[in-house]
Specification:
By secondary structure, the chain is of the alpha+beta class. It has seven helices and eight strands. The protein has one domain: Muramoyl-pentapeptide Carboxypeptidase, domain 2 (2-Layer Sandwich), CATH 3.30.1380. The strands form three sheets. The protein has a four-stranded antiparallel sheet. A hairpin with a 2-residue loop joins strand 2 and strand 3. Helix 4 runs antiparallel to helix 5 and helix 4 crosses helix 6. The chain starts with a helix and ends with a strand.
Length: 191
């Protein structure tokens, strides 16, 4: 994001709009998103024991369901016909995507990253680690991986719109960009 976009986001989250994304902006953004989340949060803690207790065994495809995206999405050049995810997150994820389409459907700045689907269910461990990724349960989704890579700092380099993170937060989902500072493509159903 450019300096102007960062200042506008800082105004929205209630911190001094100086264009510098530092500790105060990071804390304010996390607090802003947490305030939007339902209480109690419907999702498990992100530790492996809590994830297994809530979602079951990673890679258990009997827990997966599919739904049709509520608007046109592409995986590379191919249209996405269905999204395959854990049955416990399906209705919530579909609501997030539907609300994004309804609220921002004509705003390319917000919808272009959302239309660039980068995956949901993927039976694998976390990158560079040995514990299971939320993707191994189908309880995470990646959007616009090309512009919001795993290593790019958000919002300085990665450009996932705050509005997308807000819609996920309303359903209790955590956005990696805001909470971890990188991997802005990643949204997961955890606390």
């Amino acid at each position: 994001m450019n300096n102007y976009q960062i200042r506008e986001m800082q105004k929205k989250i209630g911190v001094e709009a100086d264009g510098f994304w530092g500790p105060k902006s990071i804390a304010a953004c996390k607090a802003h998103l947490r305030k939007l989340m339902p209480t109690p949060n419907p999702w498990p803690e992100p530790d492996q024991e809590s994830l297994r207790a809530f979602y079951g065994k990673p890679g258990d495809e009997t827990n997966l369901v599919t739904f049709h995206p509520p608007f046109g999405m592409n995986y590379g050049p191919a249209p996405v016909r269905v999204i395959r995810c854990h049955k416990k997150v399906a209705e919530s994820l579909e609501r997030v995507l539907t609300k994004l389409g309804l609220n921002y459907g004509t705003q390319a700045k917000i919808m272009e990253p959302v239309k660039d689907y980068s995956g949901c269910y993927n039976y694998r461990v976390k990158r560079g680690g040995s514990s299971w990724s939320l993707h191994a349960w189908g309880a995470a989704i990646d959007l616009d991986a090309d512009d919001n890579t795993f290593r790019d700092a958000w919002p300085v380099k990665a450009d996932m719109p705050l509005e997308v993170m807000e819609e996920f937060a309303l359903e209790g989902w955590k956005s990696a960009g805001a909470f971890w500072g990188y991997d802005a493509m990643h949204f997961e159903a955890t606390q």
